Amino acid sequence: MLTLIYIVIFVILFLIISNVLAENTSVFGDYPKVLAFCVTVLCMIGMSEAFSGIEGIEVNVVVLPYAALVISVIFVFLLKAILWVFRKKEGSSFSAKEKSSSKQSRR
Rounded to an integer, what distance in angstroms lies between the CA atom of residue 4 and that of residue 36? Predict the structure, then answer.
């Protein structure tokens, strides 16, 4: 079960990071997908070290920023999903007449 959660987090992180890097191709060169993969792998290593507590190679200081990145990206992703659900529920409770009147009042 934990492996499935890690795979889902990996895919979400890779998509978000690759989109950000693809938008800034002049800064990050010709291979944004390779760089996104490397950053995502470092994020997963940092997250697994932060949550596992297994004593091993001491690279916690090196991957600490990547662990912070993965935690903040997942937090923002979940927050955005929750806000999207609430807006969807809020939008469905209005009738079509109220929607058209609110659009006219915004203009």
Answer: 20
Residues 59-85 pLDDT 10s: 567 777 888 888 888 888 888 889 988
Cβ atoms of 25 and 34 closer than 8 Å: no
> What is the distance between the alpha carbons of residues 8 and 15, in angstroms, rounded to a whole number?
11
Enter the pTM of the model.
0.64
Find the domain containing 48 and state its range: 2-106
| CB atoms inside a 10 Å sphere around CB 76 | 11
Burial (CB count <10 Å: 0-12, 13-18, 19+), residue 28: middle
User: How many structural domains are present in the chain?
Assistant: 1
Q: Which residues, in sequence order, are CB contacts of 14 under 8 Å at separation 6+?
A: 36, 37, 40
